[in-house]
Amino acid sequence: MPPLFEFQLTALGRVVPWGGSDNPNLHWFGLSDGSYWMNVGEAKLFEYSGAAQALGAPRFCDYQVARLFEDVLEIAPYVLEEVPRELRAFIEFEVDRPWDNPWHAWRDLPGSLVADDEHADLLEFGATWLGQRTLDSLYLSPPANIRMWSDAKNVYIQWDNRKRQFDNKPTWSATAGTHALSREAFVDEVLSFHARFMSEMGHRVERVIAGELPSSIRIDLDGLVREQRERSASADRNVLVRSPGTDWARVRKAIARLEELRSET
Predict the structure, then answer these.
(1) In angstroms, rounded to a whole number, what is the distance separating the alpha carbons of residues 174 and 152?
(2) Residue 66 DSSP SS3
(3) pLDDT digits (tens, 9 = 90+) for 127-150
(4) Are 129 and 246 in contact (CB under 8 A)?
(5) CA distance 95 to 20
(6) Which of 10, 118, 166, 241 sits between 20 and 30 A of 46, alpha carbons compared?
(7) 183 CA to centre of own chain
């Protein structure tokens, strides 16, 4: 079975330096240039559709792998924090309902119903938890809609890219769906991603230290070694499963008020 988080680093000699011709430089993040995707059952997230590839897109997302790595580590504790049963209806994906339907309805409440200050406060507590379980991809154009959350048993990875288009054609091969895996399996997948990525980046750093890049590319070698060491220690099972402490009582209260206002529109 393929890993949940899969990646391939660009060959070292093909990594394009940052800074242009006047100041070519590279750092740990830049050296992680590559492609990545997520294997969710039969579907692959961050895989461009055949139509998009015919228009010039690569098969998989072409970006620094460190970006996905950072975002996964950031979102993981929220993903593993169990969503209370009575709030799951606001995060569960349903194929016959638009993506983020509750959020859009709350955001678009008319000013005649709710004052700006109250509206902002309600959205902060009523909707922030949704964003904390949404995998960031706004650095892509267009991005992908991917959300991850859990109940007491499973982690659910859900996506809806039906409206994400590239030149009026579907951007992503995975249009809409849900993939579930156990909470323990999700933690194992995150730690596996960390271990594999750190191993490959460790070898890459060793090659850079050995002088495999042109001397014209400026690199802080000491900083590179230090960052590799720090990032290698950045994932720990206990840290991943530590609850971020969402104030669910305030979330419930805010959503109750938002839904009350929504019913008046």
Answers:
(1) 27
(2) helix
(3) 999 999 999 999 999 999 999 999
(4) yes
(5) 45
(6) 241
(7) 17
